[in-house]
Amino acid sequence: MQQVNQAFYALLFLIMVLVSFFHMQAPVLGLALLIILPPVKHQFAVFKMAGIFTLLFVPAVLGLIAGYQNSTYLIVKDFYYFSIPVLFMLSGIVLARRIEVELFLKTIVIAGVLVSFVVTGISISYMGLGALTDPYSAHYAIGIVGTPAPPLAFACLLFTRKFNITLFRRSLFNIFLGVNAFGIYMFASRTYLIITLCFIMLLVIDKIKKVWIFPVIFALGLLVIVLPFITFSVDSDSTFINKIMGSFNEVSIGNYNTEQDINLRYRGYESFMALRGYLEGGMRDWIFGGLGKLIDLKTFVRLGEDADFQYIPVLHNGWLYILVKTGAVGVITYITIFFGLIITKWRLYANKAGKPVIRMFSAFIIGCVFSLLLTNYIVTAFFNMEMSILMVALGYSYINVHVLVHQLKARQETVKIKLAGLAAH
């Protein structure tokens, strides 16, 4: 019976990942609630462990109070977005009580394989076999669909190999690794490339001398802060490499004046207008923001097939979205919680004498957090159905590390007590 229940919830998780590929919000949220709501053993303790993530609601509540005069519909919409990371991380935490580690990891790998086949099939259906040699054009033709299941599955396979944890026999391991790598290639997504690089960096960073670790992290953090304000000169052709370099132009924050510049660098323009609107506010806006606020673009911009907008409720830059809606309190809360996770779990990951499964899940936590922090600049990662698999994996890994460390400490205390008893005799 227990195996049937595990298989059922693993299937729910797999379907949730596949549905998130098409960014279908209602079904993804419905599946997440199906995972959370049914009773689970030690349910109160499980929800208590989610306390660190429920703190993300605090700035949203303060922003709601500060923005009470705004449109009720827009306030509810913003509160819904701020509930998304809590919901998915809680899904991962509850899922850890429903699915054993091996089955969860295998489900992630299978999800990556299936998504790789789906994106390849859809790309070929749009562009024929030419999609195999020009995946970026196929990606552009398909439109806004995707989920980072292949990058996460690819990382999962590499980390299980690193820590000598066997999920599949060697031939299947190699096939699944190749399929997920091909899936990453077929997505031709700059966002998924960032996620892949975050995990690959983690594979080797624990071998770097300790004295270099924090300077490297500081340099990367500084790069992340500075890049949005830098403009690069690139050619106009549509190769993927040029699109990667062009990404810096797209998100480069600036007050662009011509219609062409605004369209080419829209993400940078909307970020500039959001930042300007925030700075023009009063002290209450700076500290608490205000749910339901609209960003004034000062001009009409074509954002849909037949729609021009001057006021927008949501931004591509998730950090500025947090700043505008929840003020400095929101940004500080997110940075404190997630950088706190990186710092505390880094010690466990870098501990070469630690249990492999604890080190592996610590790596997953760091990788998922880094991926979310970086891609939040581009696709509001914390509030995006597309990134649900990362948030679920983060929640699942978090509770497993917590439980495993607690069990290890309990065993060590038991051994100490027994040794003390023997010494007394």
Automatic annotation (TrEMBL):
Entry keyword set: Membrane, Transmembrane, Transmembrane helix
Q: What domain of life is recorded for the organism?
A: Bacteria
Q: Does the keyword Membrane apply?
A: yes
Does the keyword Ribonucleoprotein belong to this entry? no
User: Which residues span the membrane?
Assistant: 6-37, 49-67, 79-96, 103-126, 138-160, 172-205, 211-234, 319-343, 363-383
The protein, known as: O-antigen ligase domain-containing protein
Q: Provide the species name.
A: Mucilaginibacter celer
